[in-house]
Amino acid sequence: MSDRRARLQEAESTMRMLQHEVRTPLGHIIGYSEMLEEEIEERDLPELSEDLQRIRSAATRLLDLVDGKLLTDPTEEIAQVRASDAPADDDATGTVQLVDTPEASRASILVVDADVDTRETLTRGLQAAGFAVETARDGIDALRRIADGDCDLVVLDILLPGMNGLEVLERIRRSRSMSELPVLMTAALKDPVDAIEGLDRGGNDFIAKPFVTSLMVARIEAHLTAHRSAKQVAALARQLEFRNAFIRQALGRHVPEDLLVELSERPDAATLGGEKSKVIALVADIRESRRWIAECTPDQVFSVLNNVFGPLGATVERYGGSVEAIDGDSLTALFGLPVHKADDAERAAACGVAMQLAMPEINARNRRGGLPEIAIGVGIASGGVLIGGIGSGEALRFTVLGSPLIRASKIERTARPGEVLACQETCESAGEILTLAESPEEPSQDSGADERARSILGVGGSQLISLRAEPGS
Description:
Helix content is 50%, strand content 18%. It has three domains: 78 residues, no CATH class; 154 residues, Response regulator (Rossmann fold), CATH 3.40.50; 215 residues, Nucleotide cyclase, GGDEF domain (Alpha-Beta Plaits, 2-Layer Sandwich). The protein is elongated, with a radius of gyration of 37 Å. It is an alpha/beta fold. Helix 13 crosses helix 15. Helix 7 links the parallel strand 3 and strand 4. It contains 15 helices and 14 strands. Strands 6, 7, 8, 9, 10, 11, 12, 13 and 14 form a nine-stranded mixed sheet that branches.
């Protein structure tokens, strides 16, 4: 049974090759007839056009016979097939009307086919459409030209000597994606297996021989349009990533993705510096650090800091702030930089509350790791700052100078463990959505604070977040 199957497969392969050998010259007859008809039309020799049309119709009928499709009315059905394949602006004779477009003139096509007549026919048709055309006779030659050149699209025949077209396609796809280099597979067979296998291996399209030149040009233009769009998208992505990396590097701090999007739309995003801006500073500090650090090994100390500042940094980003610095046991964040928003005070206050609410989970993680439980105090202050660049070239960094950072640090020192304190200006900016303790906190003499701060218990509005209980109660 296996021998019989092998013989059947061998016979099928032989028939496919015979079909290919018959279809190829018939395709040449049709292709050359089309080109001659164009030339006859240009030279105004209508007496020759009728004979060429008969030759082309006969070749088309033979193709159908080769495929086992004997037509009952060949002349009519062949005309219908050719009319359905041709674009709407072709004339009644099926003559191809090619347009030399600017886009086509900039595209380079590599035609890979073992048959010299096919290469010549296709080259002439594509050049007439305004494409720059190179040719390759086999797979090795094609891969070399792709590696050395800068072609925009490949027309690749499946039945090549030695390395067949499917193997060539697999090698192309190892380094070039379908959007980077479109590949149109061709074959002188109408077996759908060829099309399916070519598309499965990464081909962008499949066109059976003989080619209708206008259809080939239309397919190529469609894939080149997608190819150009993909290149533009990739270029924009690279530009955006470069711009984002520059902004992060220049500012010297982590900037949330949504702020990077806004910055990328600002023409002055890469030239921030030497300007005044209003910001809100938030400082979160770990309480009694000296005590628990003395009780821990160095590895445990850094484990605690990572457990704390990882979630707190993520909280800052979630509320649209940027982490200015993490210095020892303290984190400083800014709201309103690099992009000022009307709800900066509201988000800063909500961020401080969210930090305190995150501490139970952080301490649970510490307990599981045999680490000490810790508490934080949070201070928030508003005010004007000067944004300026320090250094030059690759060492350039933008820094923030102004009172809010100092004031926030002083306010934070007066906060009790688990408390969020904010200056009066911040509370007024956020407005009535804040839930505050009844009386302002008196500044302690050893803190250096020169103003009363308000204890924030919750934030309403769109934030809807609150502490479970007033700290110290």
